[in-house]
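Before relying on records like the one below, remember that each one covers exactly one chain. Contacts with other chains, cofactors or solvent are not represented anywhere in the record.
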Amino acid sequence: MLKWFHLPGKLWVLLILGVFLFFGSPVKAYAQSNIQFKDFTISVLPEYDEPDNILVIYEGTIISSEPYNGEIRFMVPRKDENIKVGMACEINEAGGHECQPFRIIDKGDYQELVWKISKIIQPGKEYKVYLEFYYYGIEGQKNKTINYRFIPVLPIQNLTINVGQPLKATNFKLNPPSNFTGQGYNLNTFGYTFSNPNKPISIKISYTKEDPNPSFEKPKDDSQTANTQAPPATSSAQANSTSSTDWVILLLVILFIVFLGVVIFYAFKTQSSSHHVRKGKGNSRSDAPAHLVAEKKRIRKLLLEGKISEETYRELINDLENEYR
């Protein structure tokens, strides 16, 4: 049987170091327990520039307690609500939008939009994001109702939700009532604030609107959205978003397996030396004293040549003396 506890001290150090490098890499990938939103703002804009559709805009700042280069996730509506993503972007230091390839994962009651970040989030640094999408969630023709629901996927320190009142809409009501009012996207807005939300948030929106046209006309040449929209849920987008990290993980796995093989080989080699020392135990009892002396000399020689450790030497001498008592 392989005696792991009898490995030389230097080999134990190398083994522990290898395990640390494999499982304790300083850059975390995929695991999201250490990242969170410092602030996150949601704008819900019914019939903004598309009839019968709701425009939702996410804007947030992500922070991390340790270096992180994995994926980030956002809650988006269900498949049957016909989500159409316009922009899924990182915000660079100059304030520009750098849109990323993404994929969408079905979660039943909702979906998750996921993308692989293009840079490492360092502790003390901020990673800003922007996401906008349309979905069909308006019920009714004249008297309209929206049951808006948001589910936090990542931890959020400060969450703000703003609901925009469509132009030409009357009898506009929110349940629960909003905390404050303001202006945003050229509309009257009604807002809510939450600290560290960890449960789904539901807001019922109702209003009367006979005009079928949206609040604003969408530009005919919507080139910005067309050029930056990433292909959702395609195999190429998914491969691009994860391939680099997958290769790094695969390389680490291969290196760890090779290292473990070297450790096992060395351990078996040591055990083999010990086994050869024990040869000759079947000799007759008549020449036991002479054989005992010879075996002790042989074991001593192995120790001096560095083929066995001092601990193994003592064990073998003990076993030999017990056998000839």
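The helical segments are 9-23, 223-228, 235-277, 288-304, 310-323.
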